[in-house]
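B., you asked whether I could sanity-check this one before it goes into the benchmark set. Here's the sequence:
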Amino acid sequence: MKPSEIVKAVKFCHLKGLVPMLLGQPGIGKSSILKQVADDQGIEFLDFRPALHSIEDLIGLPNFSDDKKTSSFATPDWLPTEGKGIFCIEELPQATPTMMAALSQFILDRKIGSYTLPEGWNIAVAGNRMSDRAATHKMPSHINDRMTFIDIDFDLNDFDNFCHAHKINTIIRAFVKFNPKIVTSFDPKLDINCTPRSLVQASNFIDAPYDIRYALIEGTIGEGPAAELLGYLEYWAEIPDIELIKETPTTVKISDSPGVKYGVSTMLSANVTTENFAAFLTYMTRMEPEFTISFVKDAIRINDDIAETEEFNTFLKDNVEVLI
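And here's what the prediction gave me:
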């Protein structure tokens, strides 16, 4: 399931009082998706990582009665007692079997020890797959039965929307469109992988000094992906000036390179307005339809005012089946 669908699925699970368990490769955005669900609803988000805690951190330390004959657990002060929110159990498969056993009651009954999760709060769980070998333990069946498992698949449009919303370097957006498999080739045998998360981190080094740029990018996404990204920068250097395209869209040279075309399409959609859309569209229609369609879809996602322009509606009439 792609991330934008998972946001809806998590909300629906919570509406029904169920606990969703998001599974996916490291760096695909499990925590970000759950944080988005909370942000969309204007509620709190609590990130609990059981692998970093002992049982006492969750259940609390015992308090003895004055006569020392009975005891009760003191509720940890970080647990929510009011309001609304999502209690995210992050990387559950990395927890010890003992911690998993303790959390099983919490996941099913919303209780642990003397503590009960407030009514306004819902539980969500996230974790890596066993096949990713990310220090995970096999989860017991009695815990699995308490959750609804949802697998996360990489989706190019969702990733592109995320990058645009968070102002990630446009080069990264174009690079992934040109080579989308670069972020889905996770190999647990490698120390460093190119994931959506690590690629976003690598975007910070695009403008690093030349003599240190490769080392920084390689240390973030790995040797092979770093070489491919730096190779793509050569395509980027061939992209025409955006002002020139705006002024003379019918005469600016069209490159033969698919890499350059993806770059131009992404750059123009990132800078589209109702005023320059007509010129940008004129330029893009000189390319193969796949690049033109990609530009229009990106443009309308980024600036929905484009839908009000005459040029868009004319294009829509001629390409409605493809756009839908």
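One thing to flag: The first strand starts at residue 20 and ends at 23. Otherwise nothing jumped out at me.
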